[in-house]
Design brief:
- Helix 7 crosses helix 8 (190-200) and helix 15 runs parallel beside helix 16 (358-368).
- The longest helix is centred in the C-terminal third of the chain and has 21 residues, at 517-537.
- A hairpin with a 5-residue loop joins strand 2 (31-38) and strand 3 (44-49).
- The chain is globular and about 90 Å long.
- By secondary structure, the chain is α+β, with helices and mostly antiparallel strands.
- The strands form six sheets. An eleven-stranded mixed beta sheet has the order 13-12-11-14-15-18-19-20-21-10-22. Strands 4-3-2-1-7-6-5 form a seven-stranded antiparallel beta sheet. A four-stranded antiparallel beta sheet has the order 26-23-30-29, with no helix packed on it.
- It is found in: Cytoplasm; Endoplasmic reticulum; Membrane; Nucleus.
- Its cofactor is Ca(2+).
- Ca(2+) 4 binds at residues 642, 644, 668.
């Protein structure tokens, strides 16, 4: 309903409005015909089976992240011999939802849908805030207009309020309805419904702030706006230019813009925009120094990247790699085993997880490594292959990745330290065992007689750790290594960790040790400052315990507190741990690298995460007034159930800073709850702190239900009146759900 006319007149969309029968493919044997059609709103795609009476399904174009043409998914590759690529395409959804694989009857029909959906996605991405708001209003109208007559009677409006999470008494609802029904027809038509929605969403909380600064209660003069920006938003530099920019960008009234004033509508638009967000927009961009050695950064890292579910029976898939890389992950993992016909395979060894070919993983890595970020990707190899198949692995890496694979030190000379992410842009680094050292391979010392014995640490270490050092499995497994695969390892040679003392004397900067979560925790407890120092010199990787067969995650914050760079999480598992990971890496251009604080990079400082106060740091206070919530999503689909929301603010950081506080809960209002509750925190090490806002549905008899969350680094918080745009359990946005807060402190 709000799509530009140029789009509605488009030939591809015209054929999508008419509808097309296509095959939905789930496997080689599951191929069923479905009728697909684009709804008039240009936002919803509707489909059902050809059989009469079957229920239909819908999805929103806004949920589609990308359209892939041809045989670009495992499912479509498995039927490649049956259907030509020009008739096949894949819809990839945001979050952790599975792909939709489709085959059209002709390449023309496939092209219409491919091009059409891409145009609609593009149109959505370029929509302004105002248009988005109108689109939501339009969507609600469609959902509520049950009899499709383009009008809404009072009964339909009451049902709509329930759908929208509003518990409003009949008297109040009727009053709004009658006020909006300008034509006095007893129903609401388009414009009247828009008016009804705007009265319903009237922001008294924002109006209160507006009127505090407005001389006449109608507008903010340039001076009023500057006062607000200085006193509340703590803007110091270039306030005049900034105020003019905000009026130019967010004020909808031409007259007001000409007079350089801001109306309430403009003020609200500013506060709900990225500039009014709690996350400082300058820190969303790439803003850090990227020329420090690799070990001076936290690196977004994934564990068992090939799994989409749990570790016992889960489905292995190259989609796991695509999803992780597109989220900015910069270290992915492969478990390689001997496969049939001399082709190495990837799966979780000795379990029932399905298997994929190593060469397919490498191909995906070549295609997707640098889509989200130009900075280097580390491929962490857990190698269980025979020497013969290791040679095949080396061949695939070299042939498929070509120049992207780093095979020799940069500039061909022996390095004295690790290169920087900037130096390594566009490069893929292999992490694995290596015969001899970097010096030997540079001097050409490594000959075939050196081929062979390296101990296979990780699997046995993981096993030992979790089975309390059972003596029968303590022996190190000796494994032969092929020279070809060894030569692919340059800056990330996997070595066994003995002790911090041993490392300090003997370790080389290009060596990297892996620790299970329990081992890492023990080191942090017993020698935190030593661990931080170790991580200022070389890389460490921490991975989940082998006992986490459900692919659950450990808290990554404990490991970042000790300066561990590669903290590998199961990206496929949603929860607080992945929220923290997403929160830390949402800064610095989502590039997957975050510079560690100076006190963790400096070899002369002795920072101990367990006793940070010894470093003479000055604590900061953070005060957050949680004012209100807007259009929080429903948790229970049950008819008529409305949430009782509360907000919890959590501080994740060094142990001394860990804290959480919550507001009271509001009865039966998920639409526009108001709290005005203030939560206070003291933060000793702000550089390591993350702040997580969680909304829950209060339940006095059982565990509260999760509604939405948003996590960001403490250092990225903008002070003043701010909106927080909430994310779902999967980390995807759920507009227009938000919180309105006032922050003081950072």
């Amino acid at each position: 309903c709000l799509t530009p006319p140029r789009i509605q007149a488009d030939d591809d969309l015209k054929s999508m409005f008419v509808g097309t029968v296509m095959r939905k493919i789930k496997s080689r044997t599951w191929k069923k015909q479905r009728y697909f059609r684009l709804q008039e709103d240009c936002m919803t795609i509707w489909y059902k089976s050809k059989k009469a009476g079957n229920t239909h399904s819908t999805f929103s174009v806004g949920d589609v992240e990308a359209v892939r043409e041809g045989h670009q998914s495992e499912v479509l590759l498995s039927i490649a011999d049956e259907f030509p690529p020009d008739r096949c395409f894949t819809l990839v959804f945001r979050g952790r939802r599975g792909n939709l694989d489709l085959v059209a009857d002709s390449s023309g029909e496939a092209q219409s849908w491919i091009k059409g959906i891409r145009k609609l996605i593009d149109n959505l991405e370029h929509m302004g805030q105002r248009e988005k708001l109108d689109q939501w209003i339009c969507d609600w109208f469609k959902k509520a207009d049950k009899n499709r007559d383009g009008q809404m009677n009072f009964k339909e409006v009451q049902d709509l309020l329930k759908m929208m999470n509003v518990d409003m008494n009949e008297h109040h609802a009727l009053r709004l309805f009658t006020t909006a029904d300008k034509s006095q027809s007893g129903t609401l038509e388009d414009d009247e419904f828009v008016l009804f929605y705007k009265m319903l969403t009237q922001r008294e909380d924002v109006l209160r702030v507006f009127q505090e600064y407005s001389g006449d209660g109608q507008k903010l003069t340039l001076q009023d706006l500057k006062d607000f920006l200085r006193e509340e938003q703590l803007r110091e530099d270039g306030v005049q230019q900034y105020a003019l920019k905000l009026i130019e960008r967010y004020e909808p009234s031409d007259t007001a813009r000409m007079l350089q004033v801001m109306t309430f509508d403009g003020f609200l638009m500013y506060l709900t925009s990225p500039e009014g967000s709690i996350f400082n927009p300058t820190m969303v961009e790439l803003y850090q120094d990227m020329t420090q050695p690799l070990c001076h950064y936290f690196i977004s890292s994934s564990h068992n990247t090939y799994l989409l579910e749990d570790q016992i029976r889960g489905h292995s898939s190259v989609e796991g790699y695509i999803r992780a890389l597109k989220r900015g992950c910069r270290c992915v993992e492969v478990d390689c085993w001997d496969g049939p016909n001399e082709e190495p395979i990837v799966y979780h060894g000795h379990t029932f997880t399905s298997k994929i070919f190593f060469k397919d993983v490498v191909t995906v890595l070549g295609n997707y490594a640098f889509k989200a970020s130009q900075y280097p990707v580390i491929l962490s190899i857990e190698n269980h292959c025979s020497v013969e198949q290791q040679k095949v692995m080396a061949q695939h890496l070299t042939q498929i990745l070509g120049d992207k694979l780093l095979k020799t030190p940069l500039h061909g000379k022996f390095p004295i330290g690790l290169p920087s992410p900037e130096d390594l842009k566009g490069k893929i680094l292999l992490k694995g065992k290596k015969i001899g050292g970097l010096e030997d391979s540079m001097n050409g010392v490594v000959d075939d007689s050196l081929m062979g014995e390296v101990s296979d640490e990780e699997e046995t270490a993981e096993f030992n750790d979790d089975h309390h050092r059972n003596d029968s499995i303590r022996h190190r497994v000796k494994q032969s290594l092929s020279k070809e695969l060894s030569d692919c390892v340059v800056y990330c040679k996997s070595v066994h960790f003995s002790s911090f003392k041993h490392s300090q004397i003997h370790s080389k900067f290009y060596e990297i040790s892996s620790f299970t979560e329990s081992k890492a925790r023990k080191h942090i407890r017993e020698a935190g400052a030593e661990f931080v120092l170790h991580n200022a010199r070389q890389l460490s990787r921490v991975y989940p315990s082998g006992l986490r067969t459900d692919s659950s995650n450990f808290n990554p914050q404990d490991m970042w507190n000790a300066g561990c760079q590669i903290v590998a999480l199961n990206f496929q598992t949603a929860g607080v741990e992945m929220d923290l990971n997403d929160g830390l890496f949402s800064q610095n251009g989502h590039c997957g690298y975050v510079l560690k604080p100076a006190f963790m990079r400096n070899i002369d400082e002795r920072f101990d995460p367990e006793n940070p106060q010894n470093g003479g740091y000055k604590p900061l206070s953070l005060s957050i007034q949680v004012i209100s919530g807007q259009q929080l999503p429903k948790v229970n689909i049950k008819e008529g159930s409305i949430i009782d929301p509360l907000v919890r603010v959590e501080i994740h950081g060094v142990p001394l800073d860990q804290a959480k506080q919550e507001t009271r809960y509001i009865d039966n209002n998920g639409f526009n709850p108001v709290w005005y509750d203030t939560l206070q925190f003291t933060i000793h090490i702000p550089e390591l702190a993350l702040v997580r806002f969680v909304v829950e549905d209060y339940d006095k008899t059982s565990k509260n239900d999760f509604v939405g969350q948003f996590t960001l680094p403490f250092t990225c918080i903008q002070p003043g009146y701010r909106h927080i745009h909430l994310l779902s359990k999967d980390g995807t946005s759920i507009p227009p759900s938000s919180l309105f807060v006032h922050c003081q402190g950072p």
